[in-house]
Amino acid sequence: MANVSIRNLQVRLGANNVIDALDLEIGAGEFVVLLGPSGCGKSTLLHTIAGLNDASGGSIHIGGRDMTHADPKDRGIALVFQSYALYPTMNVERNMSFGLRISGTPKDEIARRVERAAGLLQLGPLLKRKPGELSGGQRQRVAIGRAIVREADVFLFDEPLSNLDAKLRTELRRELKGLHQRLGATMIYVTHDQVEAMTLADRMAVMKGGAIQQFDTPDAIYRAPENLFVATFLGSPGMNLFHGHLDTSSGIWFRSEHLALDVSHYAFRQSPAHRQAVVLGVRPEDVDVRDDGACRAPVALVEAMGAHRIVWHSFHGTQVAAIVQDDRAGGAFSLRPEQVSLFDETSTQRL
């Protein structure tokens, strides 16, 4: 395993400046997820680490060595794509060992690596089968096994589960997490699926417009989003937002036309200003549905989700989501002030 250090990275594709002045430090053995919407630059960043895109500026160090302009084969990386890209006429064993065979690796070493990878991925009984005889999940495990046999310093995954159905994605997500724990390897994983990111990552980088908006543990990002984009991108349903201002005349209160909330105990990063325009955000699980709630609002919709329900209230033209674990669906709710986030209305940054 090896650390990855990216400093002041710039990537231009044609006339477009896709990534500009990006910094990212990934520790040896970390599982880091690059998360963001389509077009945010996450795959471009991964492909540049792999050497498939040229860096226009800045540097990429892998394991302490400058790999900014090194050939992909010299970077000590293994890349797993969204498509399986298996050779249809070769069986599983030969697909996994193909790269080793063409590089002249001794046969006994190939056998050792294939056996180890097959054991890790539960592919032993399938080694003599061809790709056409495998399910989608099995084919993706073979593609991952082909990467494992390289015994690379860094493993790169470019949305490897996006072609699978929901059940297979869940199963393979669990297998990937276990694989990381067994290998202890450095892994960088690209996805637009926030559930994948939250469950897989030791740390995740939320990206927008070719820039990293926040890089931290999934729990820290979920609970304390750095800006409004991060706040609304994570979570399903997304964070509820209320526009208003701060009143510091007696304590510190958030006030809007229809809502007042004491936020005196909020961990402000700097002293708040009186009448400062802000946005208050609260996760649906931190909205208490109760008959005596401070905010009266009719129920517009109830979504049954199995283990919980999502109750949507219509609050003066704003749809407010609450997650409840029982049959409550009252016409009022309250917000938990200790769980709110506050953002500056203009800069959209966390206060």
Automatic annotation (TrEMBL):
InterPro entries listed in its UniProt record: AAA+_ATPase, ABC_transporter-like_ATP-bd, ABC_transporter-like_CS, ABC_transpr_MalK-like, ABC_transpr_MalK/UgpC-like, Mo/tungstate-bd_C_term_dom, NA-bd_OB-fold, OB_MalK-like
Record carries keyword Cell membrane: yes
Domain ABC transporter as annotated: residue spans: 4-234
A GO molecular-function descriptor: ATP binding
Name of one Pfam family that matches: ABC_tran
Family matches, as PROSITE patterns: ABC_TRANSPORTER_1 (PS00211), ABC_TRANSPORTER_2 (PS50893)
Superkingdom of origin organism: Bacteria
Keyword terms of this UniProt record: ATP-binding, Cell membrane, Membrane, Nucleotide-binding, Transport
Gene Ontology CC entries for this record: ATP-binding cassette (ABC) transporter complex, substrate-binding subunit-containing
GO term, biological process aspect, one: carbohydrate transport
Protein name (Swiss-Prot/TrEMBL): Carbohydrate ABC transporter ATP-binding protein, CUT1 family (TC 3.A.1.1.-)
